[in-house]
Design a protein that fits this description.
120 residues, mainly beta, ten-stranded antiparallel barrel, 78% strand, globular
Length: 120
């Protein structure tokens, strides 16, 4: 496992939702890092990315696979699961960079997720 510096950004056409410069850990096909109070595990496959976001209040599992509509499972502690649909419009995994453009089907909103990292 290697220590890494990461930059992450989630935004829509209207606003930046969050942006972080943080450290994390990289192993084969996996990045682990913490954004504020949220632990994030990102797993990469050939044409797929799975992200788990977890804190004391919720767990979110998102499966991105280009051109496919997949599930976003949002488990709010004490309330239960909400299942949403995500359409991955673009998925790019190159070197130390990840770019995802996706639509949340229920709201028809488009989001962009960017991540870059370097081993330190």
């Amino acid at each position: 496992m290697s220590k890494i510096n990461l930059k992450t950004k989630l935004y829509s056409d209207l606003e930046v939702i969050y942006e972080y410069s943080i450290t994390g850990i990289k192993s084969i096909n996996k990045l682990i890092y913490k954004e504020a109070d949220v632990m994030v595990t990102l797993k990469t496959f050939k044409n797929q990315i799975m992200i788990e976001r977890k804190n004391k209040d919720y767990t979110m599992l998102i499966d991105f696979n280009e051109s496919l509509t997949t599930s976003l499972i949002y488990d709010i502690k004490g309330i239960g699961n909400t299942n949403l649909k995500v359409k991955t419009k673009k998925l790019k995994i190159e070197d130390n960079n990840i770019y995802i453009k996706y639509e949340l089907i229920e709201t028809k909103e488009i989001y962009y997720y960017e991540l870059s990292y370097e081993v330190i």
